[in-house]
């Protein structure tokens, strides 16, 4: 349940000489020049193909911005492994050329494939690493990761480098203190990405399948009593609860009632005493490593810290892959709705 959360980006070994001594503006100018050399050097054939290719404009909306592309993206960078879930479902996962080491574990079937990709940094992508990866589209789960802070580039800087930015739905909040949208944003992302990559029919089928799964859960839990739930995570020793946003929507769709929904934002820091005072009937814990070791660590923590809470006494605890409970831009939260629903309502006939 302990989340690896580091803000200092790693940098690529490719860098112009004496870069550390240059101001940020000079660094950006040097990197733009480097990118131009790459486009006319060993990448020249690709540049020629772009000029000769179809000129149809592809447009999408991102954080109240309209972004236009002159061609379908062929090289994509992502800022969390979970975004790869949707891209592979759409049949374009092979276009991912680099990624950051995100907050959640990759899907098991994609773990080796994603581990082999070049790293853009620990959490926020670095300008240098992006230039080295040469993506034409960066897909991120949080606009904060492309805000120009903590060594990351801004959206405007990326545009100057010829890299378009797509912020997935619900990721436009400046920080986690702002509440934001739930799973409905995924439906919009799938359809927009279908247009961006020219796979509209496949996107429609994927959206229909996921919506069908959510409808199935809704039907089967409609008459079930709502269970009082607290969803916990721990980052750098601080205990957090889900209070809003995507994770709260996942709980509600699964047939639970979030006992901390009254707190502001998407996640709220709390003390163990606050958990005890609200005495949830069930507890869900984010496992950021998605490993048995992470699950065992979480269970030991709960038994040690909350022995009097009803959920712990009655062993009503679910340790879940963190991506299934709240990874933006990923299809896994739909799986999470079904998994949590089975946990909260074991008498239903929800399929495994």
Automatic annotation (TrEMBL):
Q: Which Pfam families match?
A: Peripla_BP_2
Official protein name in the record: ABC transporter substrate-binding protein
Respond yes or no to whether keyword Signal is given for this record.
yes
The family assignment reads:
Belongs to the bacterial solute-binding protein 8 family.
Q: Where is the Fe/B12 periplasmic-binding domain?
A: 75-348
The positions making up the signal sequence are 1-35
Q: Which UniProt keywords apply?
A: Signal
Q: Which organism is it from?
A: Streptomyces parvus
The coiled-coil regions, if any, are none
Domain of life from the UniProt record: Bacteria
């Amino acid at each position: 349940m302990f989340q690896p959360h580091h803000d200092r980006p790693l940098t690529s070994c490719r860098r112009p000489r004496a870069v550390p001594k240059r101001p940020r503006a000079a660094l950006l100018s040097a990197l733009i020049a480097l990118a131009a050399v790459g486009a006319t050097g060993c990448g020249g054939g690709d540049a020629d193909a772009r000029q000769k290719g179809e000129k149809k404009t592809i447009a999408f909306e991102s954080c109240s911005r309209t972004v236009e592309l002159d061609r379908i993206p062929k090289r994509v960078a992502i800022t969390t492994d979970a975004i790869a879930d949707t891209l592979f479902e759409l049949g374009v996962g092979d276009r991912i050329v680099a990624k950051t080491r995100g907050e959640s574990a990759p899907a098991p079937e994609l773990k080796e494939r994603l581990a082999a990709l070049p790293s853009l940094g620990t959490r926020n992508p670095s300008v240098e690493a992006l230039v080295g990866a040469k993506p034409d589209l960066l897909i991120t789960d949080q606009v904060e990761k492309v805000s120009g802070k903590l060594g990351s580039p801004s959206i405007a800087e990326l545009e100057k480098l010829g890299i378009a930015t797509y912020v997935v739905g619900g990721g436009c909040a400046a920080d986690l203190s702002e509440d934001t949208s739930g799973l409905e944003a995924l439906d919009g992302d799938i359809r927009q990405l279908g247009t961006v990559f020219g796979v509209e029919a496949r996107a429609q089928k994927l959206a229909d399948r996921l919506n069908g799964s959510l409808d199935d859960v809704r039907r089967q839990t409609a008459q079930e009593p709502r269970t009082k739930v607290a969803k916990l995570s721990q980052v750098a020793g601080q205990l957090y609860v889900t209070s809003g946003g995507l994770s709260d929507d996942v709980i509600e769709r699964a047939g639970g009632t979030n006992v901390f929904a009254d707190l502001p934002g998407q996640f709220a820091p709390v003390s163990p005493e606050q958990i005890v005072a609200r005495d949830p009937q069930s507890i869900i814990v984010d496992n950021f490593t998605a490993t048995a070791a992470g699950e065992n660590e979480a269970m030991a923590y709960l038994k040690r810290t909350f022995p009097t809470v009803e959920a712990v006494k009655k062993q009503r605890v679910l340790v879940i892959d963190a991506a299934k409970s709240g990874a933006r831009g990923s299809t896994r939260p739909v799986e999470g709705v079904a998994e949590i629903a089975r946990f909260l309502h074991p008498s239903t006939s929800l399929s495994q």
